[in-house]
Amino acid sequence: MIVKNFSGLLLVGCSALALAGCGPSDIASPGTGGDVIINNPAPTPTPTGTPTTTPTVTPASGCPTIADSQGLTDAGTISGPEGTWRVCSLPSRINTSITLQKVPGLLYQLPGRVDVGTDGGATPSSADTNVTLTIQPGVIIYGGTGVSWLHVNRGNKINAVGTASAPIIFTSRDNVLGLNNENSSGQWGGVVLSGRAPITDCTIAPSATPGTAQCERQTEGAVDPAIYGGATPADNSGRMSYVQIRYSGYVLSGNSELQSLTTQGIGSATQLDHIMSHNSSDDGAEFFGGLVNMKYFISVGAEDDNLDTDTGTKANFQYVIVVQRDGVGDSIIEADSDNAVDGNTPRQNTKVANFTFVHRNAAAGNNAAILLRGGTDYSLVNGVLVTPTACLRVSRTQTASTTANAAIDEAGAPVFRSMAMQCGGTAKYVGSNGVTADQVATLFGTGTNNNNDAFSPTLTSVFINGANESGVVATNPTSISSSFDATDYIGAVRNASDNWYAGWTCNSAAASFGTGNS
């Protein structure tokens, strides 16, 4: 845990809970501002106890009224380092649109799996329940048990819109109690959004044609069906903005874990921005099919991958910060188009612009910081990658050598533009399943398209561009996707004056984000 005091503002680590740090003192006053200077944190997190604080929170007198006739259940109180809170439990299925109000001294609890609405099937219908869960800025929701998770069914929506000074926080019971340390994870499930956009890997009806309304899948590990997929590319699962998701990733069954955020066949009308994943025991976020557009995503401390895309995902990500804990986690990126047949459509086509990836595990199971496989189409533009292992692995011939062909939804070989990498280990590139390391090196093309695999990073505060990053010639990302903003710099954070990450995030030993100018 990091404890720093700048300008009268206490910054505690993510294990303590208000906003500046991801711990119990961060729940009491989310968004407290201040002029903060953050020094580069120690690379190796050291678990310590929660700092001593004076309890200031007193419990609300009761639970507010919601529109759903089931109401909220008063589950008594819970006490942690910040004081005592009233706990209001949500019903297991929300049948009517409701709003969770920000009430001083009150936390909302997921007592187990909580469904928003009822699954409306693969095709939009007048019979849809059309339930919207609205969450006000500054609300804190915690998973009461390991198997607690929030699921937004097809035909229903979430409207979780915080602000830079009052983010919405999803976290665990242990975080509220002040029991967590820098290595805590996997204490509840996470947030899952299911939609009707096209996917591949039709597991419910294996003979169905991928990308059609008959092609559906079920959430990994869920005992009761949580189904997604359809043929509505512009489907809308709602909006999430200025949201933290902490300590998620509980194992639902077997080897199937949830992560902080899981999207499943969501459509292009879904809005995702300013989302932070902290210490997920699985991926930072995983995207199964659908059409995803996300800006301002931060993943810190994930224990598997950080940006995992699969089953025909079409995605655009811009302004992405990923920082691993020392010696923890697999790849930064893992991409696979289809688990069954490489040629199935829709074929995954993911584009990432303006990213900073700090990979810290030399023993990563995928043997590289970035893994592209399964015939995936992928573009990486204006990025910085620092890793103690190989930078890039490409697996399976169709991933590396297929030429563009719109008739079969094929965008061609992976694209790299204005990408600066510092690689470690014995090799910078890894090829597998028919692809050689030399072929991967040729794909990257160091010395061309402003790419450099012998870059010397000068990042400050872990993720902020320094002189060398600022000296790299950028590529206009709008040439890759019209959904991107035009930028003339590489990396996620242009310089010390660029503080889009501040105020709504939380700090840990892996990375400190501050709450004001940095």
What would you say this structure looks like, in words?
The chain is mainly β and 518 residues long. The protein has a single domain, classed as Pectate Lyase C-like (3 Solenoid), CATH 2.160.20. The chain contains five helices and 32 strands. The strands form five sheets. It has a 15-stranded mixed beta sheet that branches. The protein is globular and about 65 Å long. The N terminus is likely disordered.
Output mean pLDDT.
90
Rg is 22 Å
Any idea what the shape is?
globular
The CATH topology assignment is Pectate Lyase C-like
Number of helices: 5
Task: Name the helicity range.
Answer: under 10%
Question: Could you name the CATH class?
Answer: Mainly Beta
Biggest sheet descriptor: 15 strands, mixed
- Overall number of domains: 1
> Strand fraction band?
25-35%
Tally of DSSP β-strands: 32
Q: State the separation between the terminal residues, measured CA to CA.
A: 20 Å
Stretches where pLDDT is under 50 for at least 5 consecutive residues are: 1-13, 29-51
| CATH level-two architecture | 3 Solenoid
Structural class, please? mainly beta
